[in-house]
Structures are given as structure tokens and as C-alpha cells.
Fold this sequence. Notes:
Number of strands: 0
Oligomer: single chain
Number of domains: 1
Protein name: Transposase and inactivated derivative
Strand content: under 5%
Low-confidence stretches: none
Distance between the termini: 85 Å
Shape: elongated
Amino acid sequence: GSSTILRIFMQPLRPSIQSKATERFETAPGEQAQVNWGRLQDLNRQVRHWLDTVANQRLHGTTFRVPDGAGD
Length: 72
């Protein structure tokens, strides 16, 4: 009674596992972005931070500088 005999006996009884096929393709650097959709709340927080700090920066009408919020 070795484990090899047991494996040989059980092999036909075991269901066959078929893996899903994965289609791969390559793109040039900079043409594609990767996003981790695992935690949507984190992604939303990162997008809001980016919008507040980069995308929606407003310049002062006469000084053409970003106001620092202290009366500029």
C-alpha cells in the first residue's frame, strides 16, 4: 500500500480539469494602461485626488499662479 498505487487507482475517477484559454496580445509602450479594479473605492479616491491636484488646477486671473488658499 504505497501512495503511488492509490494515485494510480484514483486517477481515472478524478474529473479532468480544463483550464480556460487566455488570449494574449502585445502593445507598444505607452499605448495601454493597467488599472486594478479590485478596490473601486481606492480607485475613486485616487481619481478625486488627481482631479483636485492636477486636472482642476485654476490659475489666479492676474498673477497666473495657483492660489495657495491663504488669501491669494
